[in-house]
């Protein structure tokens, strides 16, 4: 029994030794394979290095020289000694002295004086209408308002806004694409499109951004825009944002515009490929805010047809004040809407509200919903203001022609009266334009001094019961700054007695200020 146990134990030991030998041989085999792979990799890298060397050699001596310089630069970067810092260490007292002596640059260079008019605005107490109170308790005739038809004072307009306020609240608090669209917005867009006999309209929440957003939504850096030199500031900002090539023509000078167009035709013939990809736009105002003059639209349309231009018109002043049915300058000149690519306008004039709109074809309007920055990123127009505009359109459709006729009669009477003022001033603007400008006939030659004289006249006129305003311009940002002026606006509710009062007040104020 003991002998059998000994044999079994001996057999187990031999079997264990055999397995150990097998494992050892397997480990040796793995090590050998690893060594062979390493040698192969080394040979491959060596062969790649030799191949790279021969390729560089075949590339020529200049390539080898460049590689050598790069290798030397790498070696120098790793081996060069770092120079010690030359910074001067200051004591705590010296740091405090330097900080105390340091004067930071102003956030705004050349800030305005504390008595600048823009920093001391006149405050209206109560409703802004045909008469206003500037805090003195005396009502003054308002000849600075752009509510040409005084529709903001109509009870039905106020009632429509209040009813909408009860239903939708004060504001939408969101852009149109982010829960800022209400049924009122959609209804107003449909009404505006139908009013102008266009396919579609788009509503903006801010008048200035309407025009400044609509232009760059279409015109890009490789395009050309022809614009009247007297276009308003919102158009100028739209031109600037487009990054297009801007060519200004002299105010209402169609011949100068055609000269610029002919020059471009010559350039296009030299580079037809570029000409085919360059779009050309023409941007004008129906009545220019800066001059009160009407654009020669029929002549502009002929140039549009001849030179294949895309025509944009700002009808902020003529919306509701021009044309057989108050539809603006296109209706006034009987120009088909197909001749105009887009009409832009603010709702802050005749509509007596806020915001703005564009009307045109479905393609033109839909594009703005994706590319018009003022539409995409601004909170939508407060619904109650949209509701008031809907009511204004109701009034224009039923009473518009009669209201407009009263306005034109007052514009003509005011124009005649202002034309007879002392020869120290001159009048700018068309007879039926509700916007007119009074300028010094003999300028001092210094813009600030001219403005100071006009402000004194405005201040004097206030004492005689007439509220006026000096047209404000950003002189350093205007493309072609207009000369300083007093901007005077007419409205349909002016009486002959009020026009005579305004004339006498202005005449007396001018005589008081200008000797």
Proportion of helical residues: 40-55%
- Work out the number of β strands: 14
Return the structural class: alpha/beta
- For the termini, the CA-CA separation is 148 Å
Q: Summarize the main sheet.
A: 7 strands, mixed
Strand percentage: 5-15%
Rg, rounded, reads 39 Å
Q: Which consecutive residue ranges, at least 5 long each, have pLDDT under 50?
A: 1-14
Morphology: globular
Structure explained in plain terms:
This protein has 515 residues and is of the alpha/beta class. 51% of the residues lie in helices and 12% in strands. It has 17 helices and 14 strands. The protein has helices spanning 2-59, 61-79, 92-101, 155-168, 176-180, 183-195, 207-218, 233-242, 254-270, 272-277, 297-307, 329-332, 362-371, 373-376, 383-419, 447-463, 496-513; strands spanning 131-133, 139-142, 200-204, 224-228, 245-249, 280-285, 310-314, 342-346, 356-360, 425-428, 435-440, 466-467, 469-470, 486-489. A 7-stranded mixed β-sheet has the order 3-9-8-7-6-4-5, sandwiched between helices. Strands 10-11-14-13 form a 4-stranded antiparallel β-sheet, with helices on one face. Strands 1-2-12 form a 3-stranded mixed β-sheet. Strand 4, helix 8 (233-242) and strand 5 (245-249) form a beta-alpha-beta unit. Helix 1 (2-59) crosses helix 2, helix 7 packs parallel to helix 8 and helix 15 (383-419) packs across helix 17. The chain is globular. The model is unreliable at 1-14 (pLDDT under 50).
